[in-house]
Amino acid sequence: MSMINYASREINCKVVYYGTGLGGKTTNLEYIYSRVNPDTKGKMISLATETERTLFFDFLPIDLGSIRGFKTRFHLYTVPGQVYYNASRKLILKGVDGLVFVADSQRERAEANIEAMHNLYENLEAYGYDLEKIPFVIQYNKRDLENAMPADELRAQLNPMGVPDFEAIAIEGKGVFETLTTVSKSVVKSLS
């Protein structure tokens, strides 16, 4: 949950990008990082493995102005996409204020998307978090590929709760800021 530092008059909120390996989580953060004013962002930390670009997390504080006289800072994280890093995935969820599930639209990744979504539910449950109470957005990435599933089919598989969702091509920035803006506004609203 958000951390309030009364001495510095700062509210720190944590948003986690969750999903399958190579689905576009890191690409989202890289695009955001490249477009945000240099004066409002911190250093991005990215760890790479042989099989994917993010091992633990990317950390990107973005300064978003003030709420009731407190400066608001968002910290964006990605989880590793591979299931065998589940302990890291779970640890990164601790204290989460908002979630973005990045689904890979490719038909052959449908099962991996469903598995990652179930893994998200399990890890949240382990902390006693209720997904219906946490700001949550789904992004259907890689919409430009020929083997992309129809959005309605993805929605039926991954979004039974009807949370806000967006089609995206993260590598081009399409849908990236719409996704971030929606989850950020939901987090700020939940603080009120």
Automatic annotation (TrEMBL):
Against InterPro entries, the record matches this protein to:
Gliding_Motility_GTPase (IPR052705), P-loop_NTPase (IPR027417), Small_GTPase_ARF/SAR (IPR006689)
Matching SUPFAM superfamilies, A to Z?
P-loop containing nucleoside triphosphate hydrolases
Q: Which keywords are on file for this protein?
A: GTP-binding, Nucleotide-binding
- In Pfam terms, one family for this protein is Arf
- Report the protein name in the record: ADP-ribosylation factor-like protein
